[in-house]
From TrEMBL:
GO biological process, one term: regulation of cell shape
Taxonomic lineage from the root: Bacteria, Bacillati, Actinomycetota, Actinomycetes, Bifidobacteriales
Molecular function as annotated in GO: ATP binding; D-alanine-D-alanine ligase activity; metal ion binding
Source species of the chain: Bifidobacterium mellis
Record field: transmembrane: none
This protein's pathway: Cell wall biogenesis; peptidoglycan biosynthesis
Domain of life: Bacteria
Protein's recorded name: D-alanine--D-alanine ligase
Keyword Magnesium belongs to the record: yes
Pfam family, one: Dala_Dala_lig_C
Alphabetically ordered keywords of this record: ATP-binding, Cell shape, Cell wall biogenesis/degradation, Cytoplasm, Ligase, Magnesium, Manganese, Metal-binding, Nucleotide-binding, Peptidoglycan synthesis
Length: 383
């Protein structure tokens, strides 16, 4: 009988995308090959506490009345990390340590080892999960993990620096400027900065380090008040704010997989999220239409484009992935204009990973099942 590899599946976390991570983890836990792997779900609360034994994430979905979150329950116990023990460094504390105001010096009196861990699958989106911080922690512990390393994770979490890297590699990106919102600027100042950069409306104002369309505002015309309000909304998520020219084009997403040791990227057929609402001309693909309102959109893979254009997207996605030193997986989001120009919008190093997410759907359409995808990713780091 084959000895199963023990894989910690991390989910939840401190980012705005906490609930999306919970649902992605549900997908992974329900599809993982349990003949090969023993999955160990570890949830991270919104305030950053690592727990085991709480609610079973396998039951969660986005159709729930409320979006799922990691809560402390009767069965929850804290996970404590001992850096020096590496793959044996996950320790389980007492439930009382989670809920009582014990002095730190007296806390965690009795710890039991979780046992040897072969790999970690950090199904975490956004800051403190996808931005290089967790990756650095796992590197220090010598723990193999699925996904991009410290540099690629950090660089792709910050859209400002992603654009700098891609531009240097000759990859087209949307024209835009970056604002430090901590420097108080009037709407007139912002308008002047946009005019100086010769950006065309509509504009998209977005936080540099956030995901899942949090804090993204569309500004249709040059109005100081509207622009200042958009920057203020984005600044709620990050002090660094991008003001980008809206690209007249279709949003095409390309899944990249580098499961072999040589990190050679493979690309799936690019897909498109098609908005179904009648007012789609007024809309853009916001958080609700991505995750909450299932009638708002559907996924088409491959996207309805000439094969030559689809191949151009794949080639550019692979180049972008290599440019940022990607590993494991990423989803490269592009714009395709009516003339067939391809512009890279952003790179998601841990894209939504539910069975109906674009990433999984794209690979399914390209010939790799969701379960096999999970297997490939784990095997590439734990073999």
């Amino acid at each position: 009988m084959m000895v199963r590899k023990r894989v910690v599946v991390l989910y939840g976390g401190r980012a705005d995308e906490h609930s999306i991570s919970c649902v992605s983890a549900a997908g992974v836990l329900n599809a993982i090959d349990t003949d090969r792997y023993e999955p160990i779900p570890i949830g991270i609360t919104k305030d950053g506490r690592w727990t085991i034994g709480g609610q079973d994430p396998r039951q969660w979905g986005l159709g729930d009345a409320s979006l799922p979150t990691v809560q402390i329950t009767e069965g929850s116990r804290p996970i404590i990390l001992d850096m020096a023990r590496g793959r044996d460094g996950f320790l389980i504390g007492d439930h009382d340590d989670l809920v009582s105001g014990v002095e730190p010096s007296k806390a965690f009196g009795s710890l039991e080892p979780l046992g040897h861990v072969d790999a970690v699958f950090p199904v975490l989106h956004g800051p403190y999960g996808e931005d290089g911080t967790l990756q650095g922690l796992l590197e220090m512990m010598g723990l193999p993990y699925v996904g991009c390393g410290v540099f690629a994770s950090a660089a792709c979490m910050d859209k400002h620096y992603t654009k700098i890297l891609l531009s240097q590699a000759g990859i087209p990106v949307a024209p835009g400027i970056t604002i430090d919102s901590r420097e108080q600027r009037s709407g007139a100042d912002l308008l002047a900065a946009v005019q100086k950069a010769e950006l065309h409306y509509p504009l998209f104002v977005k936080p540099s380090r956030a995901g899942s369309s949090f804090g993204v505002v569309k500004v249709e015309e040059p109005q100081a008040e509207a622009l200042a309000a958009a920057v203020a909304e984005a600044a709620r998520h990050d002090w660094r704010v991008l003001i980008e020219e809206g690209i007249e084009g279709r949003e095409i997403e390309c899944a990249v997989l580098a499961s072999s040791k040589d990190r050679k990227p493979r690309t799936a057929w690019p897909g498109e999220v098609v908005l179904d609402k009648a007012d789609q001309d007024e809309a853009f693909y916001d958080f609700d239409s991505k995750y909450v309102d299932s009638s708002a959109s559907h996924v088409e893979v491959p996207a309805n484009l000439p094969e030559e254009t689809l191949q151009k997207v794949r080639d550019l996605a692979a180049k972008a992935f290599r440019t940022v030193d990607g590993a494991g997986l990423s989803r490269v989001d592009c714009f395709v204009t009516s003339e067939g120009r391809v512009i890279v919008n952003e790179i998601n190093t841990m894209p939504g990973f539910t069975p109906i997410s674009m990433y999984a759907k794209a690979w399914e359409a390209t010939g790799i099942t969701y379960t096999d995808l999970i297997t490939e990713l784990i095997e590439s780091v734990s073999a």
